[in-house]
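Figure-free illustration: sequence to structure, shown twice.
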Amino acid sequence: MFQRILVVCIGNICRSPVAAAMLAKALPERTIESAGLGALAGQGVEPTARALGEAEGLPLSDHRARQLSTDMINAADLILVMSEGQRRAVGELAPEALGKTLRLGRWLDEGRGLDIPDPYRKSSDAFEHVHGLLKDATGAWIGKL
């Protein structure tokens, strides 16, 4: 069983904190955290992403972005990333973690999988689209976990 789940994106202010909150809400008995490959350390959730998440009851106000570390990678049982490129980046930091690093969108698109694009500095429509993908992707993972 995957007890410690780490969700990773780039800045740790748009996708990974929202996805982590979605997973944590559905799986309260698990430890679910998030981090960024190039984190905007100390920043809160981007306002549009935060508003979309909070409208669904996700607790995002206390989140502060943090940089991914090898300690975090090693502590996780499962690492969920937004793209294949991010999966490779995690593998460069900790090659032994590649086997436990998968795309969050792995089960989307009828099982073919999808990358989840970065909405940072894009329109509210882009954030809404990504939020929907995060909901679908976390929902699919919840069914598998």
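We now fold a second protein in the same way, so the two outputs can be compared directly.
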Amino acid sequence: MVFEYRISTPSRECLVNITKQVESAISKSGILEGSAIIYCPHTTAGITINEGADPSVVKDIVYFLNDKIPSSYPFDHAEGNSDAHIKASFIGSSVCAIIDNGRILLGTWQAIFFCEFDGPRARRFLVKILS
């Protein structure tokens, strides 16, 4: 069972909390035990699980990636978004989470994030529920 969600990212680089959408997919699926694969079908965006309680954590992630992979680096790619491609590769295009008793198992402070590195854009992500 695959669920597709659309989001609009507000800036060139940001992490958008998508935990509620993933929880919605799990609820709609009716699956009580299994896993959820959360996948981003874009080459300049990704998916991660990290702290969702303190917003400074996601700001620090973006800040660190910008420091290590600056857009000003003399990349060859003509579109001018090579840094976004590299950041997306570092983060990864998917995560897998356990479903137990109809609920996603996340740590106390964890959340699932759509990671935008070339926005703002209209984006989508997929949630595949496996039993």
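Summary for the second example: DSSP finds three helices and eight strands in the chain.
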